[in-house]
Amino acid sequence: MSVEENMALARRFLESQVKGDLEAMDEMMAPDFVGHTKLLPDQQPDREGQKWAYAQFSAATSNASIDFEDQIAAGDKVVTRFIVHATHDRGELMGVAPSGKELVYMPIGIHRIEGGKIAEQWGGGTGLSELRGLRLEQEERERERVEQELRVARRIQQASLPKVVPRLEGWQIFPYYWPAREVGGDFYDFFELVDDRVGVVVGDATGKGMPAALVAEATSNMLRAVAQALGSSSPSEILARVNETLLARIPPNMFATCFYAILEPKSGRLHYANAGHNLPCCRHGERQTDELVARGMPLGLMPGMDYEEKEAVLAPGDCALFYTDGLIEAHNPQGEMYGTPRLRNLLSERPEGGTGLHATLMKELERFTGEGWEQEDDVTLLTLERSAA
Hints:
Largest sheet: 6 strands, mixed
Order of helices and strands: HHEHEEEEEHEEEHHEEEEEEHHHE
Number of strands: 16
Oligomer: single chain
Structural class: alpha+beta
Radius of gyration: 33 Å
Mean pLDDT: 87
CATH superfamily of the largest domain: PPM-type phosphatase domain
């Protein structure tokens, strides 16, 4: 082939790339074609890799055009300087969503021609550097959007927590909430019921961010409304009603765990049921500890659920600790979880109650997780303590 024919072949090949004409590209490439410069990060150097890259470019852009600025040839090589214009408005490219912006890049193409086919290709110039800048802009906007969502979710979550703790003769109730940076779905509540009884709720909605905050708020509000409307003394009945209502109102991939108890302050009786939540720990006297065990599936997961109901008595000096999994599922640098056994041991060894117990627990958790620990989940503690006689 003459020099002019080689130059014309190089121009046709570049134009077929810009236009996404894969059939023409395939016809002009040698069987053992090698591309030494990548258009896209994941591009392979062979024929198929070359066609894949320009198919991606064509699918993501419209109005693509090429203008040839200069061209020289010597021997079997052709060097071409050209400008490409395209509008990025049809699909994702290099991780950047369609921006509507015009892309202009001014590369230099070098082609080796053998037997009338393009055997090798090199490139240089500005390439798609504009897209890298757009990707950084989009990533920054996404970070700002996520941060804003976290702030709103945090406000929703904290607004749903009770502002006033019930004052009960002979009892102390101490809530504690330690939020993680990424908002979880922790919630707790207490509310008055008939016959001077008090409802106590601790729960956790699955997931993070806005969805978890909304499901947590919906579950907490629903529990309070159903419990006060029915006036029922049966925690299992309340959970069953809430489960059916929640099932129809939250996304199918979400649910909430919840422990619901009804306290009779005068007798110290605690009627309770559990919807898949962590079992509260009770300390009797100074040393003995046990758990408030009851079986039941999480709320909003399956219809027609029954919840086991149990009863316990908190004697003077006894203490019940309700908590969420952010406490027992915290990990140390070795990947070991804090776990329920450690929690029960601490309760049996330390006599503190109320805020003193919370401070002890958090100090122990910090010691266990070590310095630089990034909190994985919200930690919620609620202590129900009966005064000693």
